[in-house]
Design brief:
There is one protein chain. It is built from 4 helices and 7 strands. The chain is an alpha+beta fold. It has a single domain, classed as Aminopeptidase. A 7-stranded mixed β-sheet has the order 1-2-3-4-5-7-6. A hairpin with a 2-residue loop joins β2 and β3. The model has no long low-confidence stretch (mean pLDDT 95).
Length: 167
């Protein structure tokens, strides 16, 4: 079941994200955990929860995955050309290691599509570091279109940007 995260879920969510940061750094993927603020951190996740943007995949009372989905307020506008249509941005998709390869990431992304349709959102947007082959492959497998590439001025890595039109 996918439900909105609560502040009581924060420790469990961090227990999913922290090991992933170490995994990514071992492969020289600087997407998570490589900056001074240790992105994504508890403060950012707490803000996601307060803003009702964080969702968890929970089964048998165990949080197995998490994703942030929020309204696009021009997040990518200065980085590259992107759709001006009403959009959601996807961030912080993470699956607890022992529950990977169980279709949870697919379910979370399909949930975001359903949420977008329900709220009359036309486009889902997301990016991932070019070295994150699993996420890049997942976006492509689920019909996301690679729109461009960019680098943040204040954050390491080279990112692939995707969009998916939802109906």
């Amino acid at each position: 079941m996918i439900i909105e995260a609560t502040i009581d879920d924060l420790d469990n969510i961090l227990n999913i994200i922290e090991p992933i940061k170490k995994e990514l750094l071992k492969t020289n993927n600087l997407q998570w955990g490589s900056t001074e603020d240790n992105y994504p951190n508890a403060i950012q996740l707490e803000n996601d929860i307060k803003n009702e943007n964080l969702y968890v995949y929970k089964e048998d009372n165990i949080i197995k995955g998490v994703i942030s989905v929020s309204a696009d307020n021009g997040y990518y506008d200065e980085l590259l050309e992107n759709s001006p249509k009403k959009s959601y941005i996807l961030h912080r998709l993470a699956i607890k290691k022992e529950f990977r390869n169980q279709d949870i990431a697919n379910k979370l992304l399909h949930f975001c599509e359903d949420l977008a349709i329900k709220n009359k959102i036309e486009i889902l947007k997301g990016d991932t570091e070019e070295k994150n082959t699993k996420m890049n492959n997942l976006f492509l497998k689920l019909g996301y279109q690679k729109i461009g590439e960019f680098e943040y001025d204040d954050y390491p890595g080279h990112y692939i940007y995707y969009e998916k039109e939802v109906r």
